[in-house]
């Protein structure tokens, strides 16, 4: 079953450009993963501190492998001071 993830990410004030660069690298690294059908970064036109990640994974196992990957864990470590809030919603097509 395909898993779709919608992640809303809010940067701390003054940290949006730094977070944007880190998120772009995460997208580049993630596109090489097995089971990743789509991993797209979006940035708000109205608020530069707001980002959304749209992800489509082959399965829950593929998503879990992504979350355990070295590059995702490096992203978490580097971005921790830049991120104010994250809301993650996992769905599947009905």
TrEMBL record:
This is Antibiotic biosynthesis monooxygenase. Keywords: Monooxygenase, Oxidoreductase. It comes from the Bacteria. The keyword Oxidoreductase applies. One of its GO terms (molecular function) is monooxygenase activity. Residues 3-92 form the ABM domain. The lineage of its organism: Bacteria, Pseudomonadati, Pseudomonadota, Gammaproteobacteria, Alteromonadales. It comes from Shewanella cutis. The keyword Thylakoid does not apply. InterPro entries: ABM_dom, AI-2_Isomerase_LsrG, Dimeric_a/b-barrel. Pfam families: ABM.
């Amino acid at each position: 079953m395909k898993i779709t993830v919608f992640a809303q990410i809010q940067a701390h004030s003054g940290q949006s450009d730094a977070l944007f660069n880190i998120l772009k690298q995460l997208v580049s690294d993630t596109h090489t993963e097995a089971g990743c059908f789509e991993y797209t970064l979006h940035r708000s036109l109205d608020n530069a501190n707001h980002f959304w990640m749209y992800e489509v994974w082959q399965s829950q196992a593929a998503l879990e492998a992504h979350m355990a990957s070295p590059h995702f864990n490096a992203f978490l470590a580097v971005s921790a001071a830049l991120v104010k809030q994250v809301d993650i919603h996992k769905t599947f097509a009905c």
